[in-house]
Amino acid sequence: MSKTTYQFPKGFLWGGATAANQLEGAYLEGGKGMNLADVMPGGKVRLKVISTPGFDFEIDKEKYTYPNHDGIDFYHRYAEDIALFAEMGFKAFRLSIAWSRIFPNGDELEPNEEGLAFYDRVFDECLKHGIEPVVTISHYEMPLYLIKEYGGWRNREVISFFERYATTLFNRYKNKVKYWLTFNEINGATHMPIFGLGFSPATEDVRLQESFQGLHHQFVASSLAVKACHEIIPGAQIGCMLIYAPVYAYDCNPVNVMHALKEEQIFNYICGDVQVRGEYPAFSKRYFKENDISIKMEEGDLETIKQYPVDFISFSYYMSRTEKKHKTPEEIGQGNLIGGIKNPFLKASDWGWEIDPVGLRISLNQLYDRYRVPLFIVENGLGAYDKIEEDGSINDDYRIDYLREHIEAMGEAIEDGVELMGYTSWGCIDLVSASTGEMSKRYGYIYVDKNDDGTGTLERKKKKSFHWYKNVIATNGQEL
Hints:
Elements: E1 13-17, H1 20-23, H2 46-51, H3 74-88, E2 92-96, H4 99-102, H5 113-128, E3 132-138, H6 144-150, H7 157-173, E4 179-183, H8 193-197, H9 207-232, E5 237-243, E6 247-249, H10 254-277, H11 282-290, H12 301-307, E7 312-316, E8 321-323, H13 357-371, E9 375-379, H14 397-415, E10 420-426, E11 446-448, E12 460-462, H15 464-474
Parallel strand pairs: 1-2, 1-10, 2-3, 3-4, 4-5, 5-7, 6-8, 7-9, 9-10
Antiparallel strand pairs: 11-12
Helix pairs in contact: 3-5, 7-9, 9-12, 13-14
């Protein structure tokens, strides 16, 4: 246990983060409709299968398993799990609402009351324990009907469906939820459109065009959600959510420095600039021209985006990215989902994700310098294999070390002058991995007895990190 010399703000929102599709289960209960996650197979084949052109969004149980169908049964065990979060001292719990629990197809005129009532119970349980819900409106769980019948976010009609959905949430939960996020990791859409935009491009040639058209529709939808949120819940705060990774040049060759800058602009800043500054950045004009991207906009779109920017930036941070203008296949990083080449100065996780706590301090400084709005880290954590010892203990010191180093980086950034609202580490309870559909890739402070093949008792068990994080929260980050 180490002592820190910096001060986290009073009221700092310590907690943990999850997503509905990765922990709820009960995929056909409570009037819920099918969504994207329901048709994503489990295992390391997941990304290959769903990103293959022509993916038909159908379930094939003869070939694949579907761990999201059961998750960790949070749908029935939420009270038990929230009580464990409260025991750790959580100030905030980030969760998402499954769109298809509220509007099973996505385009209905009236919501599903059974779905709304479920989240009433979840929020009531959080508030009973003094935990603020931080709610993501859309987190990789688009209704399957909107994907198959409308083509996902390529179709402008989806804007009105999302606006109806978001407005329904604000009206229903206006006395229970005051922190909202619009779209999860919105800027990741250009890499994997299927997750955030609900479609798999037919060819690589159309990926960028369709992705940025879909993103434009989301930008408009996000602004309309901000407008509705402020009108319905005047005291609420609503933010965007980015996946952020600082981009390093491989060396001081100006060619590589310029290449890294361009990669950082496109990945890290286009979505942030539109949602926070309210306009497309200057550099996007050249990028769109050079990549034959022509975004169809309607009259009033840019005015809406300008008039209703988000209140704060939330983001996930897992890794940095190192870039080189001309790289060989051997140099490409094997585990970093967002590309780049191997960084010789960094170690990697069991899944090949490079570990870079200093990169989090860099990220916080870059984001705050650029936008000057409050920041909120809503995902950060270590996916690792955990072992249960003979005495039943789970000694995940590797996770504690990872989290300690990243929280220290947060403290340094606060000393640098960054305005940081809170920290909800990812997968505070073990859940189904989004990228691989595995349970064995564990992030939590709480172990869930569930295996990749679907077996297990679902028993919850506290890891060593549970007790460590409890003390971190109790001391407001003074003891790490």
